[in-house]
Design brief:
Layout lengths: L1 H29 L3 E10 L2 E10 L3 E6 L6 E5 L2 E5 L4 E5 L5 H4 L2 H9 L4 E3 L3 E8 L2 E8 L5 E7 L5 E11 L15
Antiparallel strand pairs: 1-2, 1-11, 2-3, 3-4, 4-5, 5-6, 7-8, 8-9, 9-10, 10-11
Length: 182
């Protein structure tokens, strides 16, 4: 009988810790207005890296470390990917970033999802929405967003890792103005 009680106590402790980490991630996310970070992105085997500033709701500016001066900018409604020789304009809602950059959406999703703890380093939540498969990753210790993985409607796999994450920095709103086409 004592073994059953110890086992039940152990299970209760695990369930409580799991619920506690989810709630802490939600509170941390709610308290985050913006992030700046270095990133490494792998899209279908092609790796790129650079620096981003993300501002909730749904704004992002990324400067890639490429010779073609690639940038990605979202003003909250549209997204532009611009290089020296190309210019792509998309409605933000047609991309997985529409979901990732929406803090309130993420909070509501996380509340209803079960988390996975990966190697006591990451907390992962996975969901399907608008034909997109999205996994988001948080640091197990500081609970900050550290990456995401998406699969879009064309089955393109994109994995983004965040490093040197800083929260609630002073950002210039001009950063999120869409660049003009050349």
């Amino acid at each position: 009988m004592i073994y059953k009680l110890i086992f039940l106590f152990f299970l209760f402790s695990i369930a409580e810790a799991s619920a506690n980490i989810k709630e802490k991630i939600i509170q941390n996310l709610k308290a985050t207005n913006n992030l700046t970070f270095n990133f490494e992105q792998n899209v279908n085997g092609k790796t790129e890296n650079g620096h981003c500033a993300l501002s909730y709701p749904q704004k992002i500016f990324c400067k890639y470390n490429l010779k073609n001066d690639k940038i990605l900018v979202s003003n909250g409604k549209s997204i532009v990917i611009k290089t020296n020789s190309s210019y792509y304009f998309y409605p933000l809602e047609r991309t997985p970033l529409y979901l990732i950059l929406n803090k309130n959406f993420l909070v509501s999703k996380i509340k209803n999802l079960d988390e996975r703890i990966l190697d006591d380093k990451f907390v992962n939540f996975k969901f399907f929405e608008n034909d997109f498969e999205v996994s988001i990753f948080f640091d197990y210790n500081n609970l900050d967003l550290v990456g995401w993985q998406t699969t879009d409607i064309y089955q393109n796999l994109s994995i983004t890792f965040l490093a040197s994450v800083k929260k609630n920095q002073k950002l210039n709103d001009n950063l999120f103005v869409l660049p003009k086409q050349n």
